[in-house]
Every structure is written in C-alpha cells, then in structure tokens.
Amino acid sequence: MSVPLMxxxxxxxxxxxxxxxGNKHYPLVLMLEPLFKCNLACAGCGxxxxxxxxxxxxxxxxxxxxxxxxxxxxxxxxxxxxxxxxKEIGEIVEGIVARKKYVSLCTNALLLEKKLHLFKPSPFLxxxxxxxxxxxxxxxxxxxxxxxDRAISAIKAAQAKGFQVNANATIFDGHAPEDIAxxxxxxxxxxxxxxxxxxxxxxRAPDQESFLSRRKTKQLxxxxxxxxxxxxxxxxxxxxxxxxxxxxxxxxCTPWGMPTRNxxxxxxxxxxxxEGYVSTYKELIETTDWEAYGxxxxxxxxxxxxHCGFEPTAALDATANPLKALAVAIxxxxxxxxxxxxxxxxxxxxxxxxxHEEHVxxxxxDIHAPKVAAE
Length: 375
Fold this sequence. Notes:
Elements (H helix, E strand, L loop, with lengths): L4 H17 L7 E4 L19 H4 L5 H11 L3 E4 L10 H10 L3 E6 L4 H4 L9 E6 L4 H7 L5 H14 L3 E8 L5 H14 L2 E6 L15 H14 L11 H7 L14 E3 L2 E5 L4 E5 L2 H7 L19 H14 L1 H10 L23 H20 L1
Parallel strand pairs: 1-2, 1-7, 2-3, 3-4, 4-5, 5-6
Antiparallel strand pairs: 7-8, 8-9
C-alpha cells in the first residue's frame, strides 16, 4: 500500500470520530463530477452518453465547494467527463485544498501540460492520470492512438513541477496478467502510485463484451499478484481491498462511502449507478433505500467489484479488525487455494433500464422549458 502516512492518519482519525458519534452512513470520498463532457469517447465508458445540452452543463465553483462542505468527506475525487475542460477547475481545486481536503483530480492528461499553471503543488493535491495499461493496450482502451504517449509526457511534466501523480487503471477482460504486471513495474519505476480496479458494466457503454465477471476478476488478479511477489508495486489501496480483488474476502459494497454530486444533483445510490437524484446530501443519505442495491440484491450490481464501492468496505473492515488487516499486510495477498464464498445472485431484484431515459427526458424538458415559455 502506498497511501501517504499523513493521509492515512487523517482518514483514520475521521473514521474513529464518526464511529464515536454513532454514525452508520458517512462518506470517505466525495465523487465530485463538475461536468460530463469529455475529449475522449472510450468504448467502455457509460458516463458521456448524453445529449449536447446536458454535456454542456457545468457545476459552478460555488456548487462544488458547497457540496464539499455539505458532505464533509476527508477526500474529494474529481472525475468526469474530463475535469480539465471546466474553465474554473483551478478555482475549484484551490477552494477544496484551502479546506485541507485531499483532492484527486482525475484526468486523461490530454490537457494536463497546458493546464498545469492553474494549480500549485500541495500535499493535498494529486493528479490521477487515466492509464489502462501499457501503450498498445491503453490506446485501444481509449479508442485513440497517441494518448498513452501524451499521458506519460504529462505525468513527467507534472512531476518535474513538484506535483504528486497517481495513475488510475481500469481493467477489462482480455488483459493478460503479465502485461498488467509490466505496467505496474513501469509505474513503480516512474514513482507513480496506481489505483486499479475492474471496469463496471455500464449499461450505456458501447462495448458490452469486455467487462469482467466476478469470477474472472478474481482469477485475473490472483495471477497478477503472483507476478508481483517480491516486487514493491505502489498500489493506492488497502491490503484488504487487494485481497478482495483476489477473491479472498466476501464483501458487500458500501455505496454511501463514496457519494456522488454531479450536474443532476446527488446521485442515487452510487457513482456507478444513476437511479435517481436529490438536491441535498442529507436527502441522499436519508431517502436512499441502501438495502435495495449491491451484489445479490440488484441485477446491475451482479459483477461489480469496483474500488468506489468496495474500498470503503475494506477500509471499514480494517478499522474494525486491525489484526486481520495486519495479517494480510504481512503475508501478502493469497494467490492460491479456495476463493471466499460467492454471493448468491438468484434472488437479485431485476434491473430497471428505463430510469436513464426517463431522467434524461425530464432534464431535457427542463432545459427547453424557458425557451418554450419565451416563445
């Protein structure tokens, strides 16, 4: 694990404070999406399939900082879309850093070198550059040649100016474990921490064939971690989450651990599923039927093992069972033997695939309403 000690200490203290208060539903990371628009169109992405008027919508600086204050999470991740397209992204990041929140600014890095002047190096700021593997694999994943080279150049430029840089790797079916290991060797040599997670099966992603099942995810990561024996990869995860990826922990997700605020409002129930939106964080926590979602509960969650749902679970498990976490940290991730029992999927609630179209239609109607009224 390669999370800075100061960040670990702050987050640990925050968790203990929430437990002492008796809070059950509390956030660890705010997923703040200031826009959906992107300058890439990746085949595995289900985040940018919106009409142009919605892609043109932006959260203001005020909207973003109010969400940070309202939520109270110690870490703020800024995904998208591509956040660097937002004209006020520098002000947004500056305001969050001033609150001494850890900021992970997610980017495909195509604009990073051009926009570096908008930011100041800080122990509270990390650039999280999207890299899905080595050159050929990454460029294939993002459906555009040359993106890998530009991302590597941007990482080096940011490091040269004193910024902390992480890589965010989404893993799909067909990615050879030895190639993933070579990728992790490369990022380690560059001094870049890596967040790694299987891709979520977005219902609107153009490519529906490349997502990993849970079983395939476990088998793949066991093979990857076998290659990692004796290597000091810089992985930005708890050891229990990595153990979960290798099929050694039976976890349910913690969807409130990483709540999402975007141009629609606070998204129910999590970053990956948009099944409704409310206007306040309080309303999100109090009105979401959390028991209706998760593996074995809802069909859309069947194969999910993404870090945004299960890293909070692993972190809470580590806090509740520190000796268990220490044991895994000492022995390393188990790469052989039986898998942990799998969750029964037979009683899961059927997926509702009409919600997205209904919501988009409502938002488009609201956008066009002033024009209709003016006529």
